[in-house]
Design brief:
alpha/beta, Alpha-Beta Plaits, Rossmann fold, 3 domains, seven-stranded mixed beta sheet, 15% strand, globular
Length: 434
Amino acid sequence: MYLSQLIAADAINQVLSGRNLTLALPDAQARFPQATPQQRGGGADLSYGTLRFYGEIEAYLSLLLEKPLTDHRIYTLLLVAIYQLLHDKADAFTVVNQAVHAVSQLKRPAPKAWAKGLVNGVLRNFLRQKAHLTALVSANEVACYSYPQWWINKLKLQYPQHWQQMLLAGNQHPPMTLRMNQKKTTMPDYLNQLQNQAMEGIQLGLQAVMLTKPVAVEKVPGFKEGVVSVQDYGAQLAAPLLDVQAGMRVLDACCAPGGKTGHLLEMANVNLTGLDSDEERLARVQSNLARLQLQADLLVGDAATDAWFDGKLFDRILADVPCTASGIVRRHVDIKWLRRERDVSTFVLQQRKILPSLWQRLAKGGKLLYVTCSVFHEENQGQIDQFLNSHADATQLPIESILSQQYNNMTYMNGQLIPNDFHDGFFYALLQKN
């Protein structure tokens, strides 16, 4: 267990220093080459869990420490151990002993002799005083919900009826949802295939299947053959809402990693261009399309400019714009602690450049679907309202009737999906050029 604790502590230390967890975790795992695959996996689980509840854990630890720790490695190791004592099923005695052993293994430079005593004392004090400490932190919203205070305040203001539900949903383990390729199978046939593999799936809407128990992607029946793809139920709305028809010219802007790209091509035989500013991320799109045995023209380019544009207008445009990703925090737990309130306005300005630029590439009568994985109003309907005020040739089309008729288990309000047990927090606005 101690190697898993050390891996997690290293990864969390990097995240709290400003690094993305998707980069920090592999780096942390590589620093402990003696760890087994199981220990590396344990380190990943502890990293995600500790960051998911960091606000709560940090509140407890601040009460337990007499003064700030200057050695961040010991600090993050204590965070991991307290997470285990609060939320993990591991035996408390084992957690404490392994954490004490873990701190003795730290190198470059080696911790002082007092470090083992400190870790042991802090964790045993936590166990002895847990009830008293819980009473103290219960009045702290950051501790109760494990979100920054500015984030909590924003959701309270923008979603007075849903803010608590949204915060709690963001702290859940994300569901594993598949998108069925209707060109290769039917829902009854695929559900039977799952049953034959001793797996249970719940049908959501027209094409989505949520696995009762998540599995490694390589174990998903039909994944390698392109029969299904892994995609959140909420993200699966994009392609149907865009209403693509055979023969249309379609642009998927900011397309990486390609989940929506593949879905569009599964739905209709269209001439699709995938645009993204990151060449490495475009390689992932190509890999996904190869697995699905589909083709698209992939271009490296900035959606806010016309340098990539060949002059031929598009019938449909999917504008999956960069955003705070505040609606998918249960999948990217580091976002809560990496984002700053000022970042919202930064993304708003970026979106405000992309949307008008893409609008110029849309043919008259065509449709553009604006998508974010954010729950913040400024990036969503607020952005759309500003655009409509400055573009007389744009009309926002209603989508609620489509959602109510074709999709179950969804919670939504004015194009905003409210995160729940079945989907993340996406926003959709369908615009038509008059």
